Structures are given as C-alpha cells and as structure tokens.
Amino acid sequence: MFVYTLGLLAVALYLTLRHIYSYWARQGLPHLCPEIPYGNLRALAEKRESFGTAVNALYARSPERLLGVYLFFRPAILVRDAHLAKRILAADFQHFHDRGVYVDEQRDPMSAHLFALPGARWKRLRAKLTPTFTSGQLRQMMPTFLAVGEKLLDQLGPLAAEGHVVDVRDIASRYVLDGIASVFFGFEANCLRDPADPFREPLRDVNDPNSFVNNVRSAGVFLCPGLLRLSGLKSLPPAMRRFAREVVTRQIEHRERHPEQRRKDFIQLLIDLRREANGQEALTIAQCAANVFLFYVAGADTSTGVITFTLHELTHSPAVMAKARAEIDDMLARHDGVISYEALQELPYLDQCLKETLRKYPGLPVLNRVCTQDYPVPDSGVVIRAGTQVLIPLLAYGMDEKYFPEPDVYMPERFDEQAPKYDPDAYYPFGLGPRNCIGLRQGIILTKIGLVLMLSRFDFEATVPCKVRFEPVNVTLMPDGGLPMKITVRADRAE
C-alpha cells in the first residue's frame, strides 16, 4: 500500500512539473528550455552567479524580443527590447502598475512597504511620502550630509597618510549608513569610526550570501512569492524585523511625547502623517518600520554601489579621473571650499561619470513588473496575460552594444548632452514612470558629497583588475571580496 501511494505521489509530482514547465510551449511564446527544479536559474541556485548576472545570461541566449523563462517554478517574460520596456514602465503603466514581488500585510507587515505594495495601497502611500524628497527638503538635509562627510574625511585621513590599502566598498557602506541613520532613523550612528556599530549588523545579516534561509527569502521576495507563503518564512530575518521595529518605535514614541523636539528627517514625516490622518487610516508602527527599513537597505546598497564602482572605474581610467577631479577642484575654488546643494549642481562631468557607473552597475540589475490587465504587445500578435511576471534586465541593456557602443569601456562622455553616444530609450537605472525610485535625488546627493570629498583630498590606486566578479546570490551587485584600493593624500594637498 505504501509503495502504491508513493508511486501515485511521484506520478502526480511529475505531471505537475510537466504542466508548469510546458507553460510557454502551450502559450506559443519563444522560450528557454527549463531544468527541473531550477527553471532557468540553475547558476543562481548553485551560488555561481548573482541574480542580475544570472538573468543577464538568459538575455544573451536568445535574439527574441519577448522570451519566456522560468524563475524556478514561476513562468515569466524577459523583455529583450529596451524600447518596449520603457513603454511598459511609463506610457502603458496602467497595465503594469504592480511589481509582483512578495507582500503580505496581515501575516508579514514588514513586507508592506512602498517598493512592494500593489495598486491603490501603493499609490496612497507614495503620495504621502513624496514630500520628504523635494528639493527644499534636500537642501535642509545638507548640513546632516556634510557632517557625515566630515566623519568620512576624519576616518580616511590617517589611512591615507600611511598609504594603506582599504576596502572602498566597506568605507563607502559605513559612510552611507551613518547618513541614513541620521536622515531616516533620526539618530547618530557611528559606523565610520566603529565597523562593529550595532546599526550595521542587521544589514550584514540580510546580505549574508552564506545563509541558506536568507537565500530562500531573497528568492521568495523577488522570484517566487508563493515560496514564502508555502514555507511560512517571513521576508526579513528576525533580527532585522526586531531592529527596525525597536528603533522606529523608540523614535516615534519619544517624539510624540516631546513634539518640540522636531527634526528634518524621515521619521518626523511619518509622525506628521500619523498625526494628520484626518479620519483616514493612520500609518501603524509596523508600516512606519517597514518603510524605514526599505530606505535602510535600498539606500545603503544603491549609494554604496555607485560610490564604490565609480572609484573603481576611475582608478582604471586615469584620464577620466583627472577630468573629474579638475572639475571638482574648480567648483570648490569658486565656492571657497564650501559644498552646497547649488554647488553640487555645477558638476556636469561628475554627473556623466555617475550615469556611466549606473549603466554598468545599476542599483537593481533587474526590474520586476506584473501584468495587471491583458496587454496586447505593440507591433506583434502577442498578448501578455494578466498575472504574468515581467522582467526588465537593466544590466543587460547597459551592456548591449546595440544601445551603448563599446559597452565594456568606461566612457562618461557618452552622456554628454550636446553629443550623446547612446540610446536614451534604453537608460533608466532607477526605473521610470510612476514607480521610479522615490529616493533618487537624495541618494545622488549623498553619493556626490562622498565622491567630492574623497577626490578633492586623496589619491586612489587600483589593486585589483578592472573586471569585477559579483558576489553570488545577492539581488544587488556587490563586488566579491570587496574592492581594495591604495589610498594616499594628494600631492597638492600634503602639508
């Protein structure tokens, strides 16, 4: 009897998998042949590649405009046409207004943040949070950012004086986290001076590629939301959930008891939103914590990556380094060494460098969207059905010579507005349309301050080859083993 039952289960499992993995064949869409149980992501499952590079590899395996793929057990469409992707993100947003990533407001309230929320819930929250990212708010945050910048110089000065080799990614991460602690959490962290600062530990836990459970979480959030629902796992490790809840609760309760202690930060905006609900559903502590967590992780990874990879490319491109540094020196001379919001707008070549960095190393290498109503694809007979997951491979577009000639070359001049040498319809590293990155300008400001301070005081010398190997499994692009560089005081700055 047992053998008979086992046989029936095996047959049922075989038929189920055969049905799942024949989806695109039944739909008549060009597709890649899947492998059980990996779908088309065996390299990711075996920890040989990062999420971004694994999807990039799928992009290179077919010339089709739309390509059916399998994210483990989930069918999805890889959009290989950057122009169509732009239309999906912006002009035809009404068909793709949700990301299709994991969110469960009831069982896992920490998953219900701005990035993941669908439909009307996302729209209402986006409207509430937008005021904190205006130009006026950014100007008011400048003293906070500059104070963190001074801590960065204090940390690097002694290391440069002795010509140490430092992991620039580690330094950049600690600088960005100190800025995030002040602007989003409302307190002063000490990550730059103390690498073991408690504010840093939860991020290490979330990004630990050696944790099997964390890898399952990442796969569940971005690839197979049903995996988390079936397994009972929550989207964040317990330590991160506890950390975000405790810090946010402590800050909100303290300021609500002492309204005179206002700060120009994200926590204060959330407090004001709770107070001004006006009969509408007020933000709960869990919702506040979820959104603060989002900017903690997303802001830290993105800004850290842009600083790190820009310095890495500059050390391998001496002419570009010299040009960027000369522009920074001229700007500082015009403003008597004072960095202001307005002064940072006077660095067009540095802006081109940042754009080139984001082309090669986008903050999120792949954008998720889910079709929310049937979508007839323009200039084709294909209809993307409601509920279908769609992948937009930004990393692959950025490295495709069809859109960016000589993609392996770090060439900031390609973004010169007077003579652009790229396809602008293929460049949107922070997304596009209503669901683009809400913290884009804030992240760029923090990044530019860090780069201006470092390049105006120090020399950096590469110690590793230009070709970067990315840490496997992670969703964002992280250099495997960090990016060590030799740092010295600039000869014209030595006392």
TrEMBL record:
GO cellular component: endoplasmic reticulum membrane
Cleavable signal peptide: none
Descriptive protein name: Uncharacterized protein
Molecular functions (GO terms): heme binding; iron ion binding; monooxygenase activity; oxidoreductase activity, acting on paired donors, with incorporation or reduction of molecular oxygen
Top-rank taxon, per record: Eukaryota
InterPro entries assigned: Cyt_P450 (IPR001128), Cyt_P450_CS (IPR017972), Cyt_P450_E_grp-I (IPR002401), Cyt_P450_sf (IPR036396), Insect_CytP450_Detox (IPR050476)
Family matches, as Pfam families: p450 (PF00067)
CDD domains in the record: CYP6-like
Membrane-spanning ranges: none
Membrane topology recorded in Swiss-Prot or TrEMBL: Peripheral membrane protein
Similarity section: Belongs to the cytochrome P450 family.
Record key words, sorted: Endoplasmic reticulum, Heme, Iron, Membrane, Metal-binding, Microsome, Monooxygenase, Oxidoreductase
Subcellular location: Endoplasmic reticulum membrane; Microsome membrane
UniProt binding sites for heme: C437
Coiled coil: none
Cofactor: heme
